[in-house]
Each structure stands twice: as C-alpha cells, then as structure tokens.
Design brief:
Helices cover 31% and strands 24% of the residues. The chain contains 18 helices and 21 strands. A hairpin with a 5-residue loop joins β16 and β17. The longest helix has 21 residues. Strands 2, 3, 4, 5, 8, 16 and 17 form a seven-stranded mixed β-sheet that branches. With 558 residues, it is an alpha+beta fold. α9 runs antiparallel to α18 and α11 packs antiparallel against α17. The protein has two domains: 165 residues, Penicillin-binding protein 2a (Domain 2), CATH 3.90.1310; 315 residues, 3-Layer(aba) Sandwich (Beta-lactamase), CATH 3.40.710.10.
C-alpha cells in the first residue's frame, strides 16, 4: 500500500484533476471582475453586404454598381435607453420609441446603408453603444434611366425585380462576415481583414444590349409626350430588326431605384413594355394583311369599296373618321388605315387559319425576353371567332398584346420576313469568370416571304408619305410605319373617351437598322389618334438620334 501511494502517477492524476476542476469552475462561475473586463473587450460576427456584380450596357457603361456605404448597429449591453432621445429626427420615430426601452441581446441594426449626411449626424452624437460598420450598397449611377429593366434589390442586395431578379444567381455576392472586437478604451476594431476564411467573393456581371444614348433619348421623349397629352402611361421600344436585340426599352410612369420611398409606389414599378396588355388597333393591320397575302386571300392589285360603315355578320365595322373612303387599293387601305377595307380582307381567311398564323407571329405566346413579369397576351381560341370577331381581329380589336409582341412582329416585316426572339441580355459571366449565357441572333421562323415583306415595307412608306403617319416623317430618311388608335375595353365593353395611341416605324425602309414602337396610353387633352399623339414622339426620337450621329450611315442620299 505504501508503495502504491508513493507512485508518481498518482500525484500526476491528482494534479490534473485539480486543474480540470479549476478550469471548469472558472468557465461556469467566472469572477465578476473578469466578466466585466470581457464585456469591455467583446467580439461579434456581423454579416454585411459585399460586392454585387455590375450591370453594363452594350458600350461597357456601368448601369448598376456596388459602392461603400455606412451602417450603424447597437449593442444593448452598452446602451442607455435615455440616449434614444438624441436620435429623434434622425431615425424613424417607431425605432426611437423601441430604443427608449430596455433591450435584450447583443446586436440590433439601427440604420443600414445611409447617406453621408445621416451618417455624420449619428457619428457626431458619439453615443455609447452605437457602432459603425462599412457595407456595400447598390447604386444606379443614371438614376431612373432604364429603371424598369434594371429593377432593384432589397436592403441585403437580393434582386427583387428586373435584371436584378432575373439574374440574381449570377450577380449576387454572399454576405461577408465581419469580426468586430472592442478594446478596453471602447474603440471598435475590425479584426476580420486578415481572416481569409471570410473574404467576400465578387458577384458575376451582366451585359445588356441596351444603348444608353438611345435610352436617354427615348425616355426623355416619352415623358415629354406623356405630359404633352396628359396620358396615364406609356412605352417605347427600340429594336434592331436584324438581330432581335433591344436597344432601348422605356416605360412611364417611372421610378428611381436609388430612392427607397419610390419603391413603395407599386403603380410606377410596372414595365409597360412587357407587362401591360392592350388592343393594338391599326398597328396590327400590317400583320393581318401579310397573313392574307401569304395565304393568297388577297391580291396586291385588288381594290375594295370602303364606306363609312359596313355590316358584317352580327355586328358593324366603322371608320375612325366621320366619312368613308370610297374605292381604295390594298396599299391605300393600309396607308389610310381603312377599317372597313381591312375588315373585308380579314374575313377572307378562315378563322382557324388566321388564328394559327397570328400565333406563328408570336402573339398569345411568351416572347422569350430575359426579364421577369412578361405577359403572353390574350388571343381567344378559333372556336370563339364567330360573327364579327374575325373582322375585329383584322383591325386590331378583340385581342390583347404587349408592346414587345408588336415590336417583334414589325421587326419581322422590316428584316424581310424572319421572326426573331427579342433579347435584352448579351452576356452573363459568373463570379468565377465563366460565361453562363451568351445570346446571339435567334431565328424562330419565317412568317413572310421576301416578296410580301418588301411589298409591306413599300406600303408602310406610303403611310408616312401620304397617309396617317405623315407626322412621323423626317426629311432625308426613308421611314416605313403604321399608326394605331385603339379603344380600351373594360368589362366587355369599350370605355368612352379612353384610347391607346401608337406608332410603329422602321428605317431605312428597305434595309432597316432600327424599329421604334411608341405607345401612349390614355391621352386626355383632346387628341388621341396615333398620327397626332404618338407619331410626333417617334419623329423627335429619330431626329435626336440623327443629331448625335447614330443615323449617319442610314440617311438616304439627297
């Protein structure tokens, strides 16, 4: 027994037992003085926004970037509720009321990504318990320019609409993890800078087909037209008919994604170019005429008697003006936008055939645009095309489309008969530098023969030279176009005094480089015809593009 107790191993066992017991007691029952010291030198992990990817236009101009910003948080362990009164007028009253009461926990956001002025006000108070941290903030350098296409993010930089939402997976950069410590003097130290495990990654980048120069012109002229006619909404699309690339897409009313209060005005967030459906009216007539000619239902050399009003089946079709036109040739029916003439042409094609041809042109289908919120439009089944319905379709009534559907269809006429998928994104690169999306010209189907497409182009030139589109003419530039004036359907009937005015044109007429569709919704200052309301907006856009040199290569000689 004496030998066993004299063993050195017994003494080692006793020593380590005492050490373990002491360590356990210190951890579970720390000395109050040590606890107070540790609270003075605490550390905390704070997730912060990092570098979300950039969005560029076709020329490499940044449209959405991430910039440094200021955020403030509070540690309740160091907070005195009586100090909350000093924050009144700087922070929301509801938050100040919360801060005036005892708080639990160790972390509470006070203000995220505030402007310099607000940050300086909070700093100058030097209130104990409030700490500052640097984050990244989403910034749109051009303000409201292209806002409906770009969209916006939430406070944590997650995409909520537009390109930001559609391509969030590529643009999003996971939150960084800041490790903050507080020394004995009360200073906050960022000790995460050398912590390679928490180095934030960069997001990928998205390049658009948008030309910011054209976008600026289009948005300025759209707002000008809206205000001139006190309209409720509007849309303009500029498209390259040879590739399907969207060069500009504007919608009104608009918003500034940099101003978070603007984001609460939900009526301003709708992208009318892809998310609003309306009856196209007479801008749909070239499509119907093209279908009729392709099917051999009408000959270019024919003429029709076009009175003011004609009866068709169970309904009537009337001209937009107060008088009839008498006998018109087929090109004149298009140039003068005769409803009774087009109604007679439209009923020559069997409803089933017309329906499927209209579908072939992309109406009533998804456009394939790389944006969320795009509508398919409304096109009733051919079984419902009874009585006067086929004639209504022929003049652009009885179906609903989006401006993008029509711009794509007009582009098919402009490029010789090929329907292309419209696209607004040219390339997407992920955070590793890999190209995950690379859009090029995508041919869908041929909807017109080259001969019929050329005939329509010439007929649409007549619309501008001597028809309803004369207000859209620009000296020295050969423009082909079609006007449109449509009533607004509401609860199965057309609302009195509510119209949609539109003008769809392309130039040069024989080898088009640009298609521009102008849609002005519900003008209220007396004028409502497309030739009076939308055509002048189109003309100003063309003139502006010419002035900055975008049309130098497409002007006609002389």
């Amino acid at each position: 027994m004496t030998r066993r107790f004299g063993s050195p191993w017994f003494l080692v066992f006793i020593f380590f037992g005492v050490v373990i017991w002491r360590l356990t007691s210190l951890q579970l029952f720390p000395d109050p003085r040590v606890e107070n010291q540790s609270r003075r030198q605490y550390w905390i992990h704070v997730p912060v926004s990092t570098n979300r990817g950039f969005i560029y236009d076709r020329n490499g101009n940044a449209l959405a970037v991430s910039v440094p910003s200021f955020s403030f948080f509070l540690d309740p362990a160091f907070w005195n509720p009586s100090d909350a009164v000093h924050l009144k007028g700087i922070l929301p009253d509801s938050l100040v009321d919360t801060l005036s009461k005892p708080l639990s926990g160790r972390f509470l956001w006070l203000a995220r990504k505030v402007d310099i002025e607000t940050a300086e006000k909070i700093r100058s108070l030097k209130i104990k318990g409030i700490f500052e941290i640097e984050e990244k903030k989403r910034l749109y350098p051009s303000g409201s320019l292209l806002s409906h296409v770009l969209g916006f993010c939430d406070i944590d930089d997650k995409g909520l609409s537009g390109i930001e939402l559609m391509w969030d997976k590529a643009l999003f950069s996971p939150p960084g993890l800041r490790v903050l410590a507080k020394d004995s003097s009360g200073r906050t130290l960022d000790i995460s800078r050398n912590d390679h495990d928490h180095t934030p990654t960069e997001g990928g980048n998205v390049s658009l087909t948008i030309d910011s120069r054209i976008q600026f012109i289009v948005e300025r002229r759209l707002e000008e037209g809206i205000r001139e006619h006190s309209a409720r909404w509007g849309s303009i699309i500029c498209m390259d008919p040879q590739t399907g690339a969207i060069l500009s897409m504007a919608s009104w009313p608009t918003f500034n994604p940099n101003v978070r209060t603007d984001l609460s005005k939900t009526q301003n967030l709708l992208n009318n170019s892809i998310g609003r459906t309306y009856e196209p009216g007479s801008t749909f007539k070239p499509v119907v005429l093209g279908i009729s000619m392709e099917r051999g239902s009408v000959h270019p050399n024919e003429s029709f008697h076009c009175p003011y009003r004609i009866k068709i089946a169970d309904g009537h079709i009337s001209e937009a003006g107060k008088n009839g036109f008498g006998r018109l040739s087929v090109p004149e029916i298009l140039a003068k936008s005769s409803n009774t003439g087009m109604a007679q042409i439209g009923i020559r094609v069997k409803p089933f055939n017309m329906y499927h041809s209209v579908r072939e042109w992309g109406f009533g289908k998804p456009t394939g645009i790389e944006l969320p919120g795009a509508e398919d439009g409304l096109l009733s089944s051919p079984e419902q095309w009874r009585g006067v319905v086929p004639s209504n379709i022929a003049i652009g009534q009885g179906l609903a489309i989006t401006p993008l559907h029509l711009a794509s269809a007009i582009s098919a006429i402009a490029n010789g008969g090929n329907l292309l998928r419209p696209h607004i994104v040219s390339k997407v690169v992920d955070s590793s530098g890999n190209i995950v999306y690379n859009e090029e010209r995508q041919f869908l189907r041929t909807v017109l023969s080259p001969q019929v497409a050329l005939w329509l182009q010439r007929a649409m030139v007549d619309t501008v030279v001597k028809g309803t589109g004369r207000n859209g003419a620009v000296p020295g530039i050969s423009i082909a176009a079609k006007t449109g004036t449509a009533q607004i359907a509401e609860r199965g009937e057309y609302a009195k005094g509510r119209w949609v005015s539109s003008f769809a044109g392309f130039w040069p007429s024989s080898d088009a480089r640009y298609v521009v569709l102008v849609v002005i919704g519900e003008p209220s200052k007396g004028k409502y015809y497309g030739g009076d309301v939308a055509a002048p907006v189109f003309r100003r856009i063309v003139e502006d593009m010419e002035q900055i040199g975008l049309l130098a290569a497409v002007k006609t000689e002389g």
